[in-house]
UniProtKB/TrEMBL annotation:
Residues 231-258 are annotated as: Disordered. Residues 233-244 have a biased composition (Pro residues). It comes from Patiria miniata (Bat star). This is Ciliary associated calcium binding coiled-coil 1. Residues 245-255 have a biased composition (Acidic residues). Transmembrane segments: none annotated. Pfam families: CLAMP.
Length: 336
């Protein structure tokens, strides 16, 4: 089989005739695709060929010589997937095309085979997006594309006759493990609406205190509010217990006894004073023993200082509890 292409310039044109013989990749082994323009490459192909449908000869050669990062960048421009960094669906599509192209490149496909294989990737994915084909229908379409591989030139072909049977098997295995295995995922990607979820978070910011001095206290001395309240802040005042009714009655009875005894004591003291005025001091002191003097002093002191002593004892107990509480907090802070 002979194919020809016409190359035109200013005022002249040249026609290139290329003889294609054999079958599969052997039929195109003598063609140097780097020397041909996009139009010349299309002119060589058969009418139903799948090469150069999505990627032209020039684009395929540029991708063939690029690194994987450059392949991703150039494919995003060619396929107009410009929002792949922020759009999840575009990111999935770009990943699908980049992985397929890089796999074919590592298999050693020629420029023509890379373009044809990329057309297969694009067609099968568009069957899901546009035609909404099921997995079984998409597999049937893929089988139709393989018709003519390994056959003679006169046999009907669906556009992939530049592949061999080994290439066809490798492509089938690759698609089986990628597109066909995740067919439901791509169906969901194209035909299911996803609700947008807005994720928020609450941020608590502690504001610096006002500067009482030229500068506020240093931040390295600061403590969080939780630690301060637990270990540093003084304890709340102890609530005063409410008096019980029985205690009030006891206090009233004690007050009544004190009041009843006080006039008696006064009367006794007055009588003793009157008697002392009548009796000589020497005779009065001689009649009083040391034990009676001690007993009188004990009785008077108990009556005068009983209330004061109980009040001082309560204040001492409260102060002792407060000091013990502060010591315990200091120990807890030191252990933490």
């Amino acid at each position: 089989m002979a194919s020809s292409s016409t190359r035109k310039g200013k005022g002249k044109s040249s026609q290139i005739t290329i003889q294609i013989t054999g079958k599969g990749s052997e039929a195109y082994k003598d063609i140097d695709w780097k020397t041909l323009s996009d139009d010349e490459a299309r002119a060589i192909e058969k009418e139903a060929s799948l090469a150069w449908k999505v990627l032209s000869n020039t684009q395929t050669q540029a991708l063939q010589d690029a690194s994987v990062e450059d392949v991703e960048k150039k494919l995003s421009e060619i396929l107009k997937l410009t929002n792949s960094e922020i759009d999840l669906s575009e990111s999935v599509l770009l990943d699908y095309y980049v992985c397929g192209f890089w796999w074919a490149k590592e298999r050693g496909f020629t420029t023509q085979q890379l373009s044809g294989f990329f057309t297969v990737l694009h067609t099968l994915l568009e069957n899901i997006r546009e035609k909404q084909l099921s997995l079984a229908d998409n597999l049937s379409e893929f089988r139709k594309m393989l018709v003519g591989i390994g056959a003679d030139n006169n046999s009907p072909s669906k556009g992939l006759d530049f592949f061999d049977l080994e290439h066809a098997k490798a492509i089938t295995d690759f698609l089986q493990g990628t597109l066909f295995q995740h067919h439901k995922m791509y169906e969901f990607l194209f035909h299911s609406e996803r609700t947008e979820e807005i994720v928020g978070t609450e941020l608590v910011v502690e504001v610096l205190p006002p500067a009482a001095m030229p500068y506020p206290p240093p931040l390295d001395e600061g403590l969080s509010e939780e630690v301060y309240l637990r270990h540093v802040a003084p304890p709340p005042p102890t609530p005063t217990p409410e008096p019980q009714p029985q205690e009030e009655d006891t206090e009233e009875e004690a007050g009544t006894d004190i009041k009843s005894e006080t006039p008696k004591l006064i009367e006794e003291q007055v009588g003793a004073a009157e008697a002392a005025s009548l009796v000589q001091p020497e005779a009065l002191l001689a009649s009083v023993t040391a034990e009676e003097v001690k007993t009188m002093f004990d009785r008077v002191s108990k009556e005068l200082f009983a209330g004061l002593q109980s009040e001082i004892s309560e204040k001492l107990l409260e102060r002792e509890a407060e000091i013990i509480g502060r010591i315990n907090k200091i120990h807890r802070v030191a252990e933490a």
